[in-house]
Every structure is written in C-alpha cells, then in structure tokens.
Specification:
Blueprint lengths: L12 H6 L1 H5 L17 H4 L10 H29 L1 H10 L2 E6 L6 E2 L5 E13 L1 H6 L2 H10 L3 H8 L10 E4 L4 H9 L7 E10 L8 H4 L2 E3 L2 H6 L10 E3 L2 H5 L1 H4 L4 E7 L5 E8 L6 E4 L3 H19 L15 E7 L5 E7 L6 H4 L3 H10 L5 H4 L9 H11 L8 E3 L2 E3 L11 E3 L7 E3 L1 H7 L2 H13 L1 H4 L3 H9 L20 H10 L11 H8 L9 H12 L3 E3 L4 E5 L5 E4 L4 E4 L4 H16 L6 H7 L10 E7 L8 E8 L6 E7 L5 H4 L1 H13 L29
Parallel strand pairs: 2-10
Antiparallel strand pairs: 1-8, 2-3, 3-4, 3-5, 6-7, 8-9, 10-18, 11-12, 11-23, 13-16, 14-15, 17-20, 18-19, 21-22, 22-23
Helix pairs in contact: 14-29, 18-22, 18-26, 19-26, 20-24, 26-27
C-alpha cells in the first residue's frame, strides 16, 4: 500500500503532532495513568466532509436575501426623497446654494378727504455694511467709523443685530449726509462691502402732532406680531403699523415685498444675484378727516384743558386736574368721522427721528398713547338725559308737556330707609320750578329725571326692569361702535345684570349687588356705574339728530392704489334704528335747542360769549353734562352739540375728565368748533392723491373693511 499520510492509522506521526503529550509520556505502553485526560482532536470537533451534505443553495439564499433587503431599503429611501418629500428635498438642496432676501415695499400714503397727504414717505439714503465683508476685512469698520463719526462698538452692534436678515447688509447709518455718500461712491475700493440704499421713511407734511392718535405710527415688528401673522410674509426687519389707521389698515398700506435670490457658497459668502422680484407699493387710505378741522380741534382741546387746569371750580374752590380729554366731529347723516382729538398727545415724528426710552416711558405714564375718544370711559351725567327722555316718550310713562314742580329736593315716595337713598338733590339745591320735558332738558332739571327714574321702577310690571337701558342699547351706548380704529373700548349702562357682573369681577370696587329704587333714579340721569366713550355719545346724538338711524363711525372713506384707482369705497353702514317719530323727537329737540338759545339754558352764556355767527341762521342744539365721580374728585365735563338744528349736518362732542362743569370746560370747545365749521364747511371726499406716488404694480384686492 502506498505510504500516504491520509491512510495512516491513528497514532502515526501526524496524530502525535496534535497530541505531543503522548510521545513525552514516560508511562506510555504501561497502561493508562490515573486521571489521564481523554485525548480530543480536530476531527472530534469538526465533522468530516463525508458526514455532512453540501448546502450551497442555502448560503446563496442567505447572502441574496441580505443584499435584497438592502436594495429595498435604498429604493424606499429614494422614493421618499424623490416623491414623498420632493419639495422639501429640493428646498433643502437649494438652501445650500440659494438664499432669498426681502426687498421691502414702500408703504402707501394716508390722505385727508381732499387728497392731500397726512402721512407721506420721504426717500433718504442709508449706509449699509455686508457682514461677510466686515468679517473678511475687519479694518473696514474702522474706516467707516472715521467717515461717519460712529464708534466701532456701535457698528459691531448693528452688524450683530438679529432684527436684520443675515444675508442682507446691515443698516449702519440712516439719513446719511450727501458728502459721506459721495465719498463712498468715489472710493469704492476703500470701502469693500459698504453700500448705499435709498429707503422710504414716514413723514408728516402737517407736523407730527396733527391727529397723532387717529393716524398712528409704525415701528419694527416684534416676534409676537410675526407669530400672530404667520402668513403675512413679515420678516424680522419688517415694520408694521402699531396704532391708529397705520395699524387698522396695515393689510393695504404695507404693500407687497419684493425678493432677491442670492447664490452663496458653503460658507455663506454671496456669489451673485440669481433673480429679483420688484416690490409693490402699498395702497393709500383716503380718510374722511378734514385737515383744517382736525388741526383746529386739536388746538381747541389742548388749549381748553390747559386753561381748565389754571381755573378754579366755583363750587369746590379747587383747580380741576383735567388729566385727559377728547373731542369728536362726525357727519350725522353718514357716520363719517371728520375729526378726532385726544389729549394728552405726542409727536409722530419722534418715532421717525428716534424716541428715547425715558421719553417713551414718560408719555406712556401720562397716557399720551391712549386715544381717549374711543378708549376713555366717562360717567355721562346729564348728557344721558337724551336716553331717558326718549324712553319716557316711547313708553308714555309721563307726558312730554306735563309739568312737575322742581323744588330742588326729590323724596322717594314710600321710602323706608330714612335719609340715605330716599332724598335726592339738584346740583345747586335750588329748584327750577314748574318744568315740562323740553324745559327740563334746557335747564338740566335733575328733579324731573329723578321722578322718571322712580316712575319706571315703580311701574316695572308694566314697563319691565330695563326700559331705559333698552333705549340706551338702541342708541349704542353699551356696545362697540365698530369705528375703524384698533382697541376701541365698549361702554356700559348700569343695570341689575351689570351690577352682578361688576361685583363678580371686582367685589371690592363694586360691593353692591342689589338694585333698589335709588339705583334706578341715579341711572336715569347718567350716574351710577354707567360709563361711555366719547365716540359712543357722539354716535347716539348723531342718531337722534338725523331722525333715528345709527351709522357706523367711519374714519376711512376709500382705499386707492398707486395709480389712483379705487380699490375699496366705504359706503355708510347702518347699525340700527331708534324709533323717533315727531311726537317723540320734537319735544326733545325743543329742549336741546333751548340749552343754547334759551337764556335759562345751561350753555347759553358760553355760546353767547364764544360763537361769532348768528345762532338764528345757524341754530345749535346740545346738552351739557356734569357727571359726578368718586367723592373728592372733580366731575367729568361734557357737552354734545349738533347743527344746524333745523337740518343737522355735524355733531360735536367734547369731554374733559375731572374738568368741572360742562358749560365751563367742555362747551367752549364745541362752540369754537362750530365757529370753524360755519366758516369752513367740510368739502367732498376726493378719491385721488394730490401728489405723484412711486410707480408700482397694481393690486387687485377688493375686500371689505379691514378687521379691527
């Protein structure tokens, strides 16, 4: 047999290579040694080929299955990227190479009713610095500082300001002098990354004090405002209307921003511009406001309040503090707001030139940013007697021409509470004698209206608990007027239900929940917890003046685009009606005319001293109001007038908080205003800007009035 190592039996040299201990064992051949380990070879651990069947198919299946699973995963991922997430994938790729920056649109104008601008734009030159260039060439900041006079610290602060888009040059100097701009243009190599840009800022042709609260101002947008307008297209460096018309009609005024698509490298460096879309100029808002009337009203109100502060109340012998006040002029037949003033006020130009934090806080503390014409709540006092008189004649609780004897002291019939809540006195404790409804309005007889308040409550089974409040609701004194200005305050008219609501909100300030006869008496002449805004009172008297139609007060007349095409025309909008047939309206009108014309009228002396026109040819009807406040405080001073009384066109209201008597503090403002109106009748609305606007693409928006 061939000597082949494969055929050698166990124990040959090959096996001893794997079991060397056998050849070295001295006891080999003498039998097994106790505890000698059993020999184990590789053949004992691995089966031989003849003992195991070949399985190549299983191996290929396992390998093939593994790679097939990988292929499925790759294909699924490709499907998601290319189909499901196609848009986001493309955007992510583009973001790596393209950046879209915003080109701000020029804001639309705010125009007076004659088409002349109340708020305009002026183009100034702004110096800007590229962040990338400033990082590559730091000395440029020093060179720019030397030219402009700014500190390097300030320039660094501007560059790091997160308000501005990081891919746009940061504004360094606004309203740059022409000499500095020219120097930069002549030496471009010395100022790499520095650019000059024409920008539009707000300007006020009639001064920043004219109608500041009604016009409002713009300012840098906040994060909260961006969040509140997620689809508005605002950027961190956008400006937005903050108050007044600027805020209410923001959607029209702001225009549509343009875009510039820039190509950048992996490090964010700008390589060039890919595409530019020009911005669209904002639409302009044409107001119902008359510029001359607005200027006059601002002056009358401010001068009056300053004079009141220097006067002495003849009753209290104190200087009325008169902390604030408001005045409104409206067209009684359309609801158009012709002028609106609020005091204290502020200068709109300060927001353009820069307002210090200290000045801002001071104005805020004074309440200068409040529009008291639509936000101030004042106890109405005797101006509320229009409401009670209307309720009297609508229900028939007491005849218009039946006399009562005003003794100056009204005692509640059957009152069991002793003196408290049982006896009410006229303001001067002197009776007016025999008065009917017209004369009671003329002389402002509290006694007469005390009696009405008592009669309504004593006959509530017939007239219900709230007949006066129901009429006040019809006149709109307990609801928003929907004037197109932001942040209007809603008035309230005292009632059993209102008492419960106020008590639930503030038990300490409004401890009384029950409603008694005395409460109804106080409410009937405008006291208690009743509080209304000047715009509400103006609208109530306008409703009476025109015969019973309550219109929505409208500051804006129309929206026009940059090509003087009308986008929206606001027509008078009716909110409700008050039933005022001649049998109801005539006796009340007679009394209101007597307030000014009758020698016994509460405002006759004021108008006789103030007006410079003939009351016979241009009669004025109106009502004074001297509304009590908390003990120790001066009363609120009111006057509401409309004219000409024969065919009313205008209603004018003035209120001075803690100003004293209505005839002394508020009536002069109304009388002066009618002086202006008689001499300068308000002209028609001109739906065309009286100056050239920047050219722009037109918009096709024709929506209704913007939301408040």
């Amino acid at each position: 047999m061939k000597n082949n190592w494969r055929n050698r039996p166990t124990g040959t040299w090959f096996s001893r290579l794997w079991r060397p201990w056998e050849t070295l064992n001295p006891f080999r051949g003498r039998g097994r040694v106790i505890n000698e380990p059993k020999s184990v070879g590789i053949r004992d651990l691995v089966a031989g080929p003849e003992e195991v069947g070949s399985r190549p198919v299983l191996r290929w299946r396992l390998i093939g299955g593994f790679f097939l699973a990988l292929l499925v995963i790759v294909l699924a991922r490709l499907f998601i990227l290319q189909v499901v997430d196609y848009k986001s994938s493309v955007a992510a790729v583009n973001y790596n190479s393209l950046r879209e920056t915003t080109i701000p649109a020029t804001r639309g104008l705010i125009l007076a009713r004659d088409g002349q601008p109340l708020v305009n734009n002026v183009t100034t030159v702004e110096i800007r610095l590229s962040r990338a260039e400033a990082a590559l060439y730091p000395p440029i900041k020093g060179a720019l500082a030397s030219l402009t006079g700014l500190s390097v610290k300030q320039i660094n602060a501007d560059l790091s300001n997160p308000q501005y888009d990081p891919y746009q040059p940061a504004p360094i100097l606004a309203n740059a002098p022409a000499t500095e701009v020219e120097f930069i243009k002549l030496h471009p190599k010395e100022f790499p990354g520095v650019s000059v840009l024409n920008v539009a800022t707000r300007t006020y042709p009639n001064g920043g004090n004219l109608g500041a609260q009604i016009l409002g101002y713009v300012g840098p947008i906040t994060g909260a405002e961006i969040k509140a307008n997620p689809n508005g297209g605002y950027q961190t460096d956008s400006v937005i209307g903050k108050t007044g018309v600027e805020a209410y009609y923001e959607q029209y005024l702001r225009g549509h921003d343009g875009t510039s698509t820039l190509e950048v490298d992996a490090f964010g460096n700008i390589l060039g511009s890919v595409k530019t879309t020009n911005p669209t100029v904002g639409d302009s808002v044409v107001l119902n406001v008359d510029t001359g009337l607005q200027s006059a009203l601002d002056g009358y109100l401010a001068n009056d309040i300053l004079a009141v502060r220097n006067s002495i109340d003849p009753t209290t012998k104190k200087h009325p503090p008169a902390p604030n006040g408001a005045a409104v002029v409206m067209n009684v037949n359309t609801g158009a707001v012709l002028a609106m003033s609020s005091y204290p006020s502020f200068d709109l130009e300060s927001f353009v030139n820069g307002l210090s934090d200290a000045t801002f806080r001071q104005l805020l503390a004074e309440g200068a940013f409040n529009n008291y014409a639509i936000q101030g709540l004042y106890t109405p006092g005797s101006t509320f007697k229009l409401i009670t008189a209307t309720a009297e004649l609508q229900t028939g609780v007491f005849p218009a021409y039946k006399y009562v004897d005003d003794t100056g002291t009204f005692k509640v019939p059957g009152c069991l509470q002793g003196g408290h809540g049982c006896v009410f006195h006229d303001d001067d404790n002197q009776g007016a004698g025999l008065v009917d409804l017209p004369l009671a309005l003329t002389v402002s007889s509290d006694y007469y209206f005390y009696n009405l308040g008592y009669l309504f409550w004593a006959n509530q089974t017939r007239y219900g608990q709230t007949p006066i409040q129901n009429v006040a609701h019809a006149y709109g004194l307990d609801q928003y007027t929907n004037v197109d200005l932001p942040n209007e305050t809603e008035g309230r008219v005292d009632s059993p239900a209102v008492r419960k609501i106020l008590h639930a909100e503030s038990p300490l300030n409004f401890p009384n929940v029950a409603w008694y006869t005395g409460d109804n008496i106080e409410m009937a002449f405008g006291q208690g917890t009743t509080a209304v805004t000047p715009i509400e009172m103006a609208n109530a008297y306008a409703t009476f003046a025109n015969g019973g139609t309550r219109y929505e007060p409208e500051v804006a007349a129309a929206i026009i685009n940059a090509h003087n095409k009308v986008v929206v025309r606001y027509q008078p909008r009716v909110l409700g009606h008050v039933n005022l047939p001649a049998s109801i309206r005539d006796p009340i009108l007679q009394g209101l005319e007597g307030v000014v014309e009758n020698p016994r009228g509460t405002a006759s002396g004021t108008f006789a001293r103030t007006v410079n026109f003939s009351l016979a040819s241009y009669p004025i009807a109106g009502k004074t109001g001297t509304a009590s406040n908390a003990p120790g405080l001066e009363p609120n001073s009111w006057f509401v007038g409309f004219g000409p009384a024969t065919h009313p066109q205008y209603v004018v209201v003035c209120v001075v908080a803690e100003g004293g008597y209505g005839a002394d503090a508020a009536a002069p403002v109304v009388a002066e205003t009618f002086n202006y109106l008689v001499a300068h009748p308000v002209g028609p609305v001109v739906l065309k800007a009286q100056l050239s606007l920047p050219s722009a693409k037109t918009t096709t928006t024709t929506s209704a009035k913007a939301p408040g």
